[in-house]
Amino acid sequence: MQVNTSIEFEKIAHEFLLLVKRCIRHYYRPNVNEGYQKYDKRELQLMGEFFKIKSEANAALHNTVNTKIAAEKLCQIIDLGEKYINEMKEENKIPNCLLLRNIAAYMISLLKVFGVTPKDVDDICSVDFNETTICGTSPSTYAYELIMPYVSALTVFRETVSELAQQHNVHDIIKECDRIRDEVLPELGILLDEANPEKPVLALKKWSTSAEAITDEFK
Hints:
By secondary structure, the chain is mostly helical. It is built from six helices and two strands.
């Protein structure tokens, strides 16, 4: 994964955390057995690779405070996580949410070292996961249920307009639809799945970041 700017770095990290949040909300159930999956061969492999990269990132920060190497290691961790999630999706398996949570927790700690702090995003890594409980409705769950129909309607409308624009070769409208998908919605915590645009990934918390916090070492 090549990262050339601090903005691109923030975007990649943000989207991966949204993917982890999606897995947690869709699959993690502390009340049932699936919430406590054992570590199979694939999970053990992922954990070993994660610990190795984590150790290298820590060494880069502890010895010479080499933020460039640490950022590269963070991107490698994101690659590992995305590959694992995609594999589980292709094999129709439930990803190990606790392992993904641990990866996300370490990512957040590194982002804070860089000064790029995702505001109020630590709830992704909460042990309690009250939002995913089967029985009962938390205030946050209610907020999701309240806003999701509007978000779904917006994303379906965007997809419909984009398809019509492509049929009639209206390039300006196509570009605007792409901009909404790639720039506007992610800033609001909404990530569209190209394979299923009718089911967007929604995170109500918006990031508050400092782009200047990551230096020109990415160039």
